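Hello forum,

I keep getting stuck at the same step: I have a sequence, I want structure tokens, and every attempt I make locally crashes halfway through. Rather than fight my setup again tonight, could one of you with a working pipeline run this one for me? It's a single chain of 308 residues.
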Amino acid sequence: MIQVQNVSKHYGELIAVDNVSFHLEKGDVLGFLGPNGAGKTTTMRIITGYMPPTKGNVYIADIDVFEDPQAAKSYIGYLPENPPLYEDMVVREYLDFVADIKQIPKKEKNNRIHYVMEKCGITDVSKRIIGHLSKGYRQRIGIAQALINDPEVLVLDEPTSGLDPMQIIEIRELIHGLSGERTVILSTHILPEVTMICSKVVIINKGKIALEESLERLTNKMDGVENILLKTRYCGEEIQDQIISLPNVSDIRLGLASELIIEQKKGADIREELSELVMRNGWGLLEMRPVTHDLEEVFLRAITSEGN
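Reply #2:
Ran it on my machine without issues. Output:
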């Protein structure tokens, strides 16, 4: 549904985004993470066609965002970090205005406005001036304007920024209810939101992708499966070949700091067998432990590991 291919954005000598690539299938919910200044907002603006890349391509439903922007944007609903609200307008009038901008057919407009107000919980404030409402309600109106054209892709930049705990829960539940058929990109600094809402994580640091992984594998919450982290002094390719040949190993991959993440078969415990293999081959055992890290640990390791 979304393909980001080798996208870079330069501002003179400053490289804000550096050769970023990832793809999302229909229904994926991506947690787009990174420290301040990492390039998240710039990348999201490029994906939505708000600004062009210096190089690279973005495709929405196989449509090049910059070759045919009008067609591509018809698939997109976008909530910037600061929602594009006219605070002196009444809520219902504002949504009517946005519907006209997005060229919603007149015969569908009233139904779409009614639907997004109900979906976003703003029907009770439909006749109130936007500037008189709380930050939580304004965020809901921002999401409503992003949904007015019934988009297949929803891009949300820090949708819970500046909200109180109750408002965060309400907006989080709203976003969760919008996922499923839609493909969602969610930028946030609140890591629990990612574990509650998202199916995939991309971590960006200094303009580059530091990590891309499904949330299920990343947080090791697969049913009954525990991964083992193995770090050895010797790092030859034959190590992976020998480990994957063990009868109770189902997968193996390279971790963030050249360690190996070994996925055991359900109910298995390969620690004794694995340590014997390492000792027998003289690989030099430096570390072996169950992988129990949470998303916060993964995030910190990704943005501080060498090369980022």
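The chain has a mean pLDDT of 88. If your local run keeps crashing, start a new thread with the error log.
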